[in-house]
């Protein structure tokens, strides 16, 4: 596995017997470097990656054409002339595009559990894994290996808060995940949308994309959706104050009281002290 893994992996394994046994077996399994027929390889069932950027895949295939495949693909044998890819599916796909008939493979003897550990961790640490795939991979580590957020953070060399924030993305609706996966939404947008659910979340996510809202604007939109009464109350207050001001100006020099009783109800009270003020009121209201 690559150099991005946190130093917590070793120390964590010393305190976690179940994972320790799995990893010891993986580390001590036979490592046999072979040139295998490219058609003998099959996609790994623990691969978290769902989408591959075609442009970068073509770039990698050109590199393989010019320089060959420098890093071998990690596989395990699961049948006669059948090898499951544990790490390196992107290199395999690029090698096929490059027209290679054989690829260098590191053949390991791995149980399903060990294969899952290596595949998930190796792929999660890659920079080109999209954020949804990373969140789903982390979710499998937590649920299938019974790890805490802190455990995963130590293994991957990340902060616990970043792991927790990524794991929360798994509760997004399918449509919102699609928009996040495609890059139409960013992490900040997604975190704001987590406060909404179901169809409301999806419709809001679509609106955010269509209006090209910033993260801050998205947070405000979500807040307005969650607290519509507060927004309406503010609008009513502003309208009432404006009406009160207009009413006072129209009946200046008179005793005017503006009383609001709630539920869009209220009253304006004009009090006169003498016949002259009553006459003035009649004139102003057209009587």
From TrEMBL:
Residues 34-124 form the ParB-like N-terminal domain. One of its GO terms (cellular component) is chromosome. GO terms for molecular function: DNA binding. GO terms for biological process: chromosome segregation; positive regulation of sporulation resulting in formation of a cellular spore. It comes from the Bacteria. Keywords: Chromosome partition, DNA-binding. The keyword DNA-binding applies. Pfam families: HTH_ParB, ParB_N. Transmembrane segments: none annotated. PANTHER family: CHROMOSOME-PARTITIONING PROTEIN PARB-RELATED. Involved in chromosome partition. Localize to both poles of the predivisional cell following completion of DNA replication. Binds to the DNA origin of replication. Belongs to the ParB family. This is Probable chromosome-partitioning protein ParB.
């Amino acid at each position: 596995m690559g150099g991005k893994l946190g130093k917590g992996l070793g120390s964590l394994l010393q305190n976690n017997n179940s994972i320790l046994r799995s990893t010891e077996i993986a580390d001590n399994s036979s490592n046999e470097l072979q040139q295998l027929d490219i058609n003998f390889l099959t996609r790994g069932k623990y691969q978290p990656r769902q989408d591959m950027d075609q442009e970068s895949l073509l770039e990698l295939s050109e590199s393989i054409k010019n320089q060959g495949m420098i890093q071998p693909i990690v596989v395990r044998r699961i049948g006669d002339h059948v090898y499951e890819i544990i790490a390196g599916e992107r290199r395999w796909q690029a090698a096929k595009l490059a027209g290679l008939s054989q690829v260098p493979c590191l053949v390991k003897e791995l149980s399903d559990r060990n294969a899952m550990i290596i595949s998930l961790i190796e792929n999660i640490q890659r920079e080109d894994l999209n954020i949804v795939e990373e969140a789903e991979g982390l979710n499998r580590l937590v649920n299938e290996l019974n790890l805490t957020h802190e455990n995963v953070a130590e293994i991957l060399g990340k902060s616990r808060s970043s792991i927790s924030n990524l794991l929360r993305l798994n509760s997004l609706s399918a449509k919102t995940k699609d928009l996040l996966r495609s890059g139409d939404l960013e992490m900040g947008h997604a975190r704001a949308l987590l406060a909404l659910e179901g169809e409301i979340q999806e419709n809001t996510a679509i609106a955010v994309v269509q209006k090209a809202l910033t993260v801050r604007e998205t947070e405000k939109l979500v807040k307005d959706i969650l607290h519509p009464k507060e927004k309406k109350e503010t609008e009513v207050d502003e309208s009432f104050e404006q009406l009160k001001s207009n009413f006072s100006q129209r009946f200046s020099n008179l005793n005017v009281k503006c009383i609001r009783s709630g539920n869009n109800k209220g009253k304006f009270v004009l009090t006169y002290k003498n016949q002259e003020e009553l006459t003035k009121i009649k004139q102003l209201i057209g009587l």
